[in-house]
Amino acid sequence: MVKDRFHDVVRTALEKDNWKITADPYEVSIDDVDFEIDLAAEQLLAAERENQKIAVEVKSFISTSNVSDFHTALGQFLNYRDALARIEPDRQLYLAVREPIYESFFQRRFIMAAVERYQVRLVIYDVKKEVIVQWL
């Protein structure tokens, strides 16, 4: 699998946000299908809470068609989420997108409705600062 253009940026941003990267990539096998989710991470939220586990699929949205990129990202997200539900249901899946893409493309009514309908969790990141801007 080829790493997304901003894979290392998201990894650094997660580490700055006190996430421990536990797999890069996170390989998942279900029956006779193999997946590679970009990152797996864990974070201790508080002493009285259990560990929170996440998997993050990084998408750059750099092709000539954001709609095509969204189709691909949504399809991967849904497949990965279904696979995780079978093998590690306590791990939450997130789609990582750059801040400018979130502020423009992801604000379109149809895209917002799809994100809500399919319950896509988003992590928004700043490429230059290499930080997480928002968790949705």
Number of helices: 4
List low-confidence stretches: 45-49
| Percentage of residues assigned to helices | 25-40%
- Give the number of DSSP strands: 8
Structural class: alpha/beta
Strand content: 25-35%
Mean pLDDT: 90
> Main beta sheet: strand number and arrangement?
6 strands, mixed
- Evaluate the radius of gyration: 14 Å
Shape summary? globular
**Order of secondary-structure elements:** HEEEEEHEHHEE
- Enumerate the strands of the largest sheet in spatial order, edge to edge or round the barrel: 1-4-5-6-7-8
Task: For the record, give the distance between the C-alpha atoms at the N and C termini, rounded to a whole number.
Answer: 27 Å
How would you sum up this structure, described in words?
The protein is of the alpha/beta class and 136 residues long. Helices cover 34% and strands 35% of the residues. The strands form two sheets. It has a six-stranded mixed β-sheet, sandwiched between helices. Strands 2-3 form a two-stranded antiparallel sheet. Strand 5, helix 2 and strand 6 form a beta-alpha-beta unit. It starts with 6 loop residues before the first helix and ends with a strand. Residues 45-49 have low confidence and may be disordered.
Descriptive labels:
single chain; 136 residues; alpha/beta; 6-stranded mixed sheet; two-stranded antiparallel sheet; globular
